[in-house]
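Notes to self, Flagellar FliJ protein:
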Amino acid sequence: MATLHSLKRLLEHAQQQLDDSATKLARLNLKQQESEKTLKLLVDYRRSYQNRIMASAEDGIDPVEWRNYQAFIGKLDTAIGEQQKVVARSLQHTAAGHAEFHAHRRRLKSYGTLAQRHQLDHAAQLSKQEQRQQDEHTTNGISHRSRSR
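result:
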């Protein structure tokens, strides 16, 4: 049964690939969530900082403090822009991980179907062989009885 052995090895390999891609996908999902969380923290901090400065500005703010505020907001905006790029790349990687996972799952299912068909064919062959042996036995018994009469 070289074919059955080969199919079994293919099934084991496909299962291992599926398990590996599931682990990779979980890691990619976690990275995506972390990058989105970091982006949200940056955006929330910027909003909070801007609200505090605007509240302070109502009472008056000196030019040095205003320039510091503008420089810091600029740095926050740059950080937010970079983090948005990280989130976008993370989304792409996660989508690719999903595609890879589904491809491995389809491959495993295909190999499983092939193995099942092979087992059914093998069972049918065994059944035919048993039927032939029974027919031969019956035929031999009938011919033996007819000769002995």
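- The CA atoms of residues 17 and 61 lie 61 Å apart.
- The domain at 2-136 is CATH 1.10.287.1700 (Helix Hairpins).
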